[in-house]
Amino acid sequence: MNVPSCVSSPRRLFRRLAKKGSVKACYEASGAGFVLHRVLAKDGFHCEVIAPSLIPRKPGDRRKTDRLDAVNLARLYRSGHLTAVHVPSPEQEALRRLIRLRYEYVRYTTGTKNRISGMLRNHGHVFRDGKSTWTKTHRQWLARMRDELDGAMHTGLAAELEHLEYLEIQRGVLDDEITRYAQCSPYRSQVEALCCLRGITTLTAITLLSEIGDIRRFRSPTALMAYFGLVPSERSSGERERRGPITRAGNTHCRRVLVEAAWNNRHRSGADLILNRRRQGQPPDVVAIAIKAQHRLYKKFWRLDHCKHRHVAITAVARELCGFVWAVLKAAPQH
Questions:
Q1: Are 164 and 109 in contact (CB under 8 A)?
Q2: Gap between the Cα atoms of 122 and 111, Å rounded
Q3: Longest Cα pair distance anywhere in the chain, in angstroms?
């Protein structure tokens, strides 16, 4: 169902039902977005958007229709067994879409680079003028290969290189736009505060802010960790306690950028010119939290790296970094 073109029908239904008493409703979060929620809220009706992954389901139930789903949703909503998702403002949702689009362009760029390398490697053309690819020297080599090759190889390589250039230009445009939004109200103060943490740059900070929204809706750092799916899974019974890998539930975008930021904390804590510049003019509480995180995360990584797999250690550092993000946003000015 195309919700934006059908909102008039639910509005008429709610107005008829409102004549008989108070009306409360819910619907599953989907690709339809939050249009229906915003329209009904504007009309003064109570409507919540439900997280589909947290809806209780019977293991033996093999029937699924729209009517049965609606009845089951109504029963669970009345009994209080459903979990509502946070509904962002239209501006916040638009910024979130812009940032996710930027990461999609990064993924497209990586795929194009892999196709170019695979195309040349399959025909025996291997770059040997350096250890790293996609450097200035490597790109000059690709330009020479495009001029030297002929036939179908020339056409395919030229098309891929032109497509790669287009993707990189578009990604640069998106980066400039995202940076501009990060330097404006209401994000600027919080972005600058988050950039005091090692490994967090402007792009990472604005990504976290667009996905988190109001930090006050998370009562503790553990709640934010659970929202990002960074807490360990658990299957305990009686006196036996068994913990597994992280749940991977919730927001995948923030979990990814936190893990990427955690890799920077494997280096020794010390004087850092860039970090010191970022911390100038920031509130003393924020700087104190950032310095504490800088030393603690480094020690935690090397303590775990000696006895566990490095990826497990990085995930643990990302989880603790998430707690420091919560503390910084709590201490930072809101505007």
A1: yes
A2: 16
A3: 79
User: Residue 85: inside a domain, yes or no?
Assistant: no
Tokens for 162? 């032109």
Q: Provide the number of structural domains found in the chain.
A: 3
Q: Within this chain, do residues 300 and 207 fall inside the same structural domain, yes or no? A: yes
Across 29-60, b (16+ Cβ under 10 Å) vs e yields beebbbebbbbbeeeebebbbbeeeebeeeee
115 and 228 inside one domain? no
**Per-block average pLDDT, block size 10, for the chain (335 residues)?**
67 92 91 89 93 88 88 94 92 94 96 96 91 93 94 95 97 96 93 94 95 92 93 82 84 92 84 85 94 93 92 94 96 79
241 and 116 share a domain?
A: no
Domain range for 310 is: 188-331
Which residues, listed in sequence order, are joined to residue 246 by a DSSP beta bridge?
232
Structure-token pair, residue 108: 């497209």
pTM for this prediction? 0.88
